[in-house]
Design brief:
67% helix, single chain, elongated, 15 helices, four-stranded antiparallel sheet, 414 residues
Length: 414
Amino acid sequence: MSGVVNVLALTGSFFMLQVYDRVIPGRSVPTLVGLAIFAAMLFTFQGVLELIRSRLLVRIGMALDQRMSGKVYAALMRLPLRTKLVGDGLQSLRDLDQVRSFLSSAGPTALFDLPWMPLYLGICFLFHFWIGMTALGGAIILFGLTLLAEARTREPAKKANGQAALRNTLAEATRRNVEVLQAMGFGSRIAERWAGINADYLGTNAKASDVAGTLGTISKILRMMLQSGILAIGAWLVIHQEATGGIMIASSIMMGRALAPIELAIAHWKNFVSARQAWARLAQLLAMLPETSTSVSLPAPASGLAVEGISVTPPGERRLVVQDAGFALEKGAGLGIIGPSASGKSSLVRAIAGIWQPARGAIRLDGATLDQWSPEELGKHIGYLPQDVQLFDGSIAENIARLEPQAPSDKILA
């Protein structure tokens, strides 16, 4: 589709060429009308194709989101159980939004149009050697600006993403602890800290935007200068009877079309870099937390629980908080665990409930280790009361039923 669009983009140049070289010398109004109608049809067809292409890109972005959002969200739920989170833990969702929004923008169209530059440059050489050399020189300079934009915006964009995560983390912590800040009177100091982090983020983001904006402005001015320059060269060739007036005008339009994809690529380069970094983070996340499945469906546990010499470390740490704990419980038995603060009670319970993976040892229900169960099946048989309790958005009944649709009322009441 991009190939057809770029071929149709030649319409304006050839229309001007025919007007200057055929219509004006021959003073033929019927020829002008015929050319105008034909050009209008081609422009309309080009517009329809570009509209379809832009809508296809939006649908491609939506399809990518629909295909990956479930995997990303599932990984987002498991990530805090595997490693220590940096930021508010929602970076993967923002990364998916970044990739989808870039695919739905005009940025990819520039990348699709770039391979067709040789076609325009080749036609410029057919017009005249020096017209082609001028267009080729401008393309090389603008391509160099594109590479410079890649080198200068990669690190600032990466740094800005990290600072944005820190800013969001502090804002979320402030929201959760607003009562403490108000009661203990250190809200102003938290505000000062947030202002400092926000200033760093704005500075880094402005640096990346300034680089992209500067290079974009340079490329725009350079393209305008090249168009005027090629008009001057065309005029010189017309004066020396080496080209016609139609070639002079058509070559200016042709070069503008040839260099437009590079200018568009520079304008969207910051978004391209951000989307590429977001895609790399998503790939790393999904590789670290692949989807798990169990091939055998186990019956409901009914006889006993066995904890066999487990040691537990918090996610993202190496320090053992539980060492070689072991016991066994039969059906109907109970066990209370007491101890001072930070002695490992909650960590042991998290491991027994399957929230944290033991560093060594095993936990078995009716002889089967917890990883032999799917979380959905195992969760039906486990009750867990965390230290910090929050309700999900919904009714009390929905929270009691663990958001199960059409849950039996008698079980909810019980």
